[in-house]
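Chapter summary example: a protein plus histidyl-adenosine monophosphate.
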Amino acid sequence: MQTIRGFRDILPEHISLWQKVEKEAFALFESFGFKEIRIPVLEKTELFARSIGETTDIVEKEMYTFPDSKGNGLTLRPEATASIARSYIQHKMYAADPVRKFYMTGPMFRRERPQKGRYRQFYQIDVEVFGVESAYADVELIFLLNDLFKRLGLTGLSAHINSLGCPECRPAFQKALLDFLGERKDLLCENCARRIQKNPLRILDCKTASCQKALEGAPATINHLCPACDDHFTIVRTTLEKQGVEFIVDKSLVRGLDYYTRTAWEIKTTTLGAQSAVAGGGRYDGLVKELGGPATPAIGFAIGFDRLVEVMEQLEIESIKPTLDLFIVALGDQAMEKAYQWSCELNQQGVRTEVDFRGKSLKSLMKRANKLNANHVLIAGEDELNKNQLILRNMNTKDQTFIAIDNLVPELMTILKK
Ligand code: HAM
């Protein structure tokens, strides 16, 4: 049996970079006041259709959707923002305190064509802020993301930012875009020709060569912002500049989801070929209301966890090497029984200890201790048990000492500085 296409196992030998990222990211988020939220993997299809948008690629062709036994449409989440907004509304979180800051990590599902950096089950680290309209919330998130990548040792990244306007300025922009595309309709791909009336902004995100050609010289959202959106974007840009966070204003950035308003951004890498976005986010001030909650501004981002780890591997960023404090070499039945008990006791005291119960020889057990990166090895053979003294070998210095069995655990704790 094999995994299905686009799905993969992440094996223990590859997990340490994932854990390093989680540790660093969660500590940083907690320090900025974010709280972890866990949301279901399966939701009603309608939630994603209404939030991500009926005419987006994700909803039109990439969702894993199936009916349950009653015929209700269910979908494996393709992203986390919609679910977190649903949760914010469902639990009336806004009533006690409208300002809520969340983070989560977990698998997402999109039926895209698999390739390096693109999977059908992939992982995101997602961050969302509800209830803050100020542009400082936007800057804070971009700063946070930038800082996290810096802490992880990432290089070769660039932040692309844009403003997509709001319901106030969007209609005038859409009209300008439709007017512009009027004479170029023949160049549009089949998909875009169909979407043009319903959702003209989607065309800006189309990667086909003919649509790209049609878009040459097209109007940009940032040239059609209303004064409030313009002020908002000015604060974002000037604050980032003051902080020394590098960015590129990218007029062509529109993102693949419909809920965005005002600031939108992507962090791109040069290391992953075509799949260059390692993270993406933006403001979505209309979504909570659209889903039936009170009008609430919101903003967030998601990191593509698989891609982030791939970039780190390419940059040869060190992961935390798993080590063991103590490996007990138990030779013979009597030693095995004792070793089992010591190991349980030591692990309870926080000493990472392992015993091999297969009854192997001293030579093969010493090899295993090396393989497990054990810092110390405790040798318990028949002879040592009879003499009431075990050998403790420091695997780094190769020094050996004797330890009396009677006081074994406390003495080991002192030596191993636990
Ligand atoms: P997104 O741009 O669709 O945004 O996804 C965020 C990141 O997830 C991408 O930049 C990419 O690194 C990663 N990603 C997306 N699809 C795949 C895939 N098939 N395989 C591997 N990685 C992938 C969102 O999902 C929004 N919910 C972000 C957000 C949060 N906006 C506001 N709050």
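Key point: The CA atoms of residues 313 and 402 lie 42 Å apart.
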